Amino acid sequence: MKLTVVGCSGSFPSAESACSSYLVEADGFRLLLDMGNGALGDLQRHCGLYDLDAIFLSHLHADHCIDMCAYFVARYYRHDGGRCGTIPVYGPEGTEKRLTTAYDDVPDERSMSEVFDFRTLKSGTFEIGPFQVRTERVSHPVEAYGIRIEHGGRSLAYSGDTGTCPELAQLADGVDLFLCEASFTHGKEDIPDLHLNGREAGEYAHGGRVGRLVLTHIPPWTDPRQNLSDARAVYAGPVDLAHAGAVYEV
Q: Is the dihedral of CA 117, 87, 75, 102 positive or negative?
């Protein structure tokens, strides 16, 4: 599998990166994990507008899904003669309504479903293209999901946004690459059921015997070097800070 970091800034875009969006590719299939603020523009550096095969939205906070409104425009009003066909969009209950309300100028309330095939996420296992997928609801103020993706004997997990919870440990257990949020700073913020800090991300990687940890969703006001140091203090494996344009072969 090939993982490309399209955007990785937490909460709002930074000067260097759009918000959360990650492209996973295998066997010619392209699965996008989240499409936060600014992600659609940067996505076009890595694939064509109409080359995605499926989209997974971990939750419906704007920094993970709001560029779906712009993507609706690109697919619905395609300029070269004809509307795009539907693409599967996996998201929590109410995804269609949320995006329709956010765009606020659709021709009618069902217009988004003409280009997006909305599929409601639940915890469980299923297939997306060539990928075997497991999703689990994680700990966040809104309905949110982490995802584990397996293909060809390799695996990666993406935390989405979450506080500490046993479901995250299940998703990350033994994966080759763990893309884990680290929004908070250890010893500074401690808000249950919201976000992780770098040390907590490192503890999950250590406990799950993860092959590589990639810290992501770090807001512009958080010092990424501190989170990196905190993760390395508890996890002996390789740890990276996600950055826009980074590519990993899993």
A: positive
